[in-house]
Write a structure and sequence with these properties.
Number of helices of chain A: 3
Number of strands of chain B: 23
Distance between the termini of chain A: 10 Å
Radius of gyration of chain B: 29 Å
Number of strands of chain A: 5
Oligomer: heterodimer
Shape of chain B: globular
Structural class of chain B: alpha+beta
Structural class of chain A: alpha+beta
Strand content of chain A: 15-25%
Strand content of chain B: 25-35%
Number of helices of chain B: 17
Number of domains of chain B: 5
Strand order of the largest sheet of chain A: 2-3-4-5
Low-confidence stretches of chain B: 54-76, 183-188, 558-575
Mean pLDDT of chain B: 79
Largest sheet of chain A: 4 strands, antiparallel
């Protein structure tokens, strides 16, 4: 490890935090995450809506199920990609690789390259 | 190329027809194996030779079939007698039951068919299996249609485990499982599994794979003590075993045609109906627990009887154990990164603990219950014995996990656990209560009783879990402790830590509550300091492994004023 911390530095500070890694993900990643979210959420909702259209007696129940999946699913698809884009960052130095990932649950990893 | 764990060439029937091969290279990387498909078979062998850093196509085995250390051991599974015996036994039992129940002849007649075909298949497979040990490699060829040729650099071998079930012991055989440091191969998929070799051959193989040099006697570190049997029933397995004994009795009666539904159960209801139901149910529960405790005791004896942990002259740690099925696993000492003392709740109340090694290639926590677990250093035993073995294994005067002064964690950790207990109780009680408003008052009562019970239990667990949280540094070790149902105290050599991970939920950002995880190449590969304030966790990480995180650390932008008042209030001195 090339760098060493000066002695008083970490021991005195209770406010030490990890700074964000330097480099963001590619902006296109947002669209990728959005697509992934839609691919997860849309098929079950569409199937349920289709069934509701085909089977009139069960229509309220099927639409209710579609809403139970669809409403949080839509919120997920709207909120997750930009949020995730703000969290995902990375950098690599001579000695270490430093990454940050996740969205609601943010995971920062610093690892020695050797 | 030092990270390569195994190199395989795989040839399916079509590939054999076209003279092609696929090369599969397993590395220590988590990204999974590398595949090179559709290579000319000759080129594939060159690639394998190149990747495995061995002289190309050298004539293997200079001293063939002599039992020289680096000689090629003769190939094969010397035994399908074992399979035959088990198969015949099963067939006999099946026939006996069928005879007992007067099965028609057309049900009885086909019974030997699967037996014969399985034996024939196994014999064929056996005849196509070869292994050999060269100066640099352990090699294994297997497969009928798809031929697989696996080579493992000897330097990658992390554990060698011998297992013998009663059948193997009768025939003087042993199964050899060789593990590399690759996590996936830690237990379920050992890199190479040889089933079975003659016992002497297996022992020679193990010795030549693990014991490089050094002569002299093994030094015994720990030896099974019969008094430890008292820890056997102190396991969550006890009630489960009791219930499964009940189930097994029912099933057996049913198979034999006694129809327990219409004979035994009405009889029992008749006889016990006159007695006090409270007495009957208490006695029934006690009976089940007693049966379960006896079962757990038997299990303990079978698994741990004759346990012995020795240090071999070369420094390897070898644990052997077992009453009917004997197992023995060797762990090279240089792979050892630390020791974990695990105390499941009931064992902890009884003053006992498990002791595990934290080591490259040894099974992690998920493998603890597995019989092929190379990381066990001590079965459930008195906690003092656990500390003694930990200290001795690490070459320290004291167990770092015992002498360290652990820093307690912030009250946020307690609040978090109480919140979880509250939510669990509200959820478990709320559902029946909600249904009860609709279906009837019985469910409402069930709901609130359930919620109160979960809250009471949950509060106890929350308090216990919070009190068990702690982290600290002593000498060359960092120590972390957490868990309530299973309390783990992990002492990790600071030099073994290769990275840190900080995990934080979005709603914990203001409180700066987070989980700091030390990453190692060994064991589970990740050891948590749970629910710690970020400043404190990062200082701990920095102090444990100076320099690793420095380039990524900074002060809060609002340094000096502590906006929530937590940071200064709970920043404790690590000294």
């Amino acid at each position: 490890m090339a760098a060493t911390m000066t002695h008083d530095d970490p021991a005195t500070s209770a406010d030490l935090v990890l700074r964000p890694p330097r480099r963001p993900s590619d902006p296109r990643a947002t669209r990728w995450w959005l697509t992934q979210a839609l691919v997860t959420v849309l098929p079950p909702v569409l199937v349920l809506v289709l069934l509701a259209w085909l089977i009139p007696p069960a229509r309220p129940w099927l639409l209710l199920s579609a809403a139970i999946i669809g409403v949080p699913g839509t919120a997920y698809a709207i909120v997750m990609p930009p949020w995730r884009y703000r969290v995902h960052r990375w950098e690599s130095t001579e000695n270490a690789v430093f990454t940050r990932a996740g969205w609601v649950r943010c995971v920062s990893s610093g690892g020695s390259r050797r | 190329m030092t990270r390569i764990q195994t190199v395989d060439t795989v040839r399916g029937p079509l590939q054999q027809l076209f003279g092609l091969s696929t090369v599969v290279v397993t590395t220590a990387s988590a990204a999974g194996p590398l595949r090179i498909e559709g290579l000319d078979h000759g080129l594939a062998q060159d690639v394998v030779a190149d990747l495995a850093e061995k002289p190309r196509r050298r004539p293997v085995m200079p001293h063939d079939r002599s039992s020289g250390r680096h000689g090629v051991a003769a190939a094969r599974r010397p035994d399908h007698r074992g399979g035959g015996l088990v198969g015949s036994g099963l067939a006999l039992v099946t026939l006996a039951v069928m005879w007992w129940r007067d099965a028609p002849w057309w049900l009885v007649a086909p019974v030997p068919v699967p037996l014969v075909s399985v034996i024939a298949y196994e014999a064929l497979r056996w005849s196509k299996t070869r292994y050999r040990l060269t100066a640099e490699h352990l090699e294994l060829k297997t497969g009928l249609l798809v031929r697989r040729h696996r080579s493992i650099p000897r330097g990658r071998v992390r554990s060698v485990d011998l297992t013998a079930d009663p059948m193997h012991r009768l025939l003087r055989l042993a199964v050899v499982r060789v593990g590399t440091g690759h996590r996936e191969s830690s237990s379920k998929a050992a890199a190479v599994s040889l089933n079975a070799l003659r016992r002497a051959e297996a022992q020679t193989l193990r010795a030549s794979l693990v014991r490089r040099d050094g002569d002299g006697a093994d030094e015994t570190i720990a030896r099974f003590d019969r008094r430890w049997l008292r820890f056997g029933p102190l396991s969550f397995a006890s009630p489960v075993l009791g219930l499964s004994a009940l189930g097994a009795t029912y099933e057996t009666l049913d198979i034999l045609g006694y129809d327990p539904d219409h004979v035994l159960i009405p009889y029992l209801i008749d006889r016990l109906g006159e007695a006090d139901p409270l007495v009957v149910s208490v006695l029934a529960v006690l009976g089940l627990l007693l049966v379960g405790a006896i079962g757990a005791l038997g299990w303990y004896a079978e698994t741990w009887w004759d346990f012995r942990l020795v240090r071999e002259p070369s420094g390897g740690l070898r644990a052997s154990r077992g009453l009917f099925v004997t197992r023995s696993a060797t762990l090279e000492e240089e792979r050892l990164h630390g020791v974990e003392v695990a105390e499941p709740l009931m064992l902890r109340l009884g003053g006992g603990a498990y002791t595990y090694a934290v080591a490259t290639g040894a099974g992690g926590a998920e493998d603890e219950a597995d019989t092929f677990n190379t990381s066990v250093l001590l079965p459930p035993a008195p906690i003092g014995e656990s500390h003694r073995v930990a200290a001795e294994v690490l070459h320290e005067d004291d167990d770092p996990g015992q002498v360290v002064s652990l820093v307690p964690h912030t009250r946020h950790a307690l609040a978090r656990r109480i919140r979880w207990a509250f939510l669990a109780g509200a959820g478990l009680g709320g559902v029946p209560a909600g249904l009860g408003l609709w279906l009837g008052p019985v469910l409402v009562h069930a709901g609130w009783i359930c919620a109160l019970a979960v809250w009471a239990g949950g509060l106890l667990f929350a308090r216990d879990g919070y009190r068990n949280l702690g982290h600290g540094i002593t000498g060359n070790y960092l120590v972390t402790r957490h868990g309530s149902l299973k309390r783990r105290t992990i002492a990790l050599r600071r030099g073994g830590v290769i990275g840190w991970t900080v995990t934080q939920w979005a709603w914990h950002r203001r409180a700066t509550l987070c989980r700091v995880t030390a990453t190692t190449p060994g064991g589970r590969g990740a050891y948590h300091v749970k629910d710690v304030l970020m400043g404190e966790g990062l200082r701990f990480a920095e102090k444990a492994v100076p320099g690793l995180l420095v380039p990524f650390l900074t002060r809060r932008p609002w340094e000096g004023r502590s906006p929530q008042g937590y940071a200064s209030g709970h920043g404790r001195d690590l000294g």
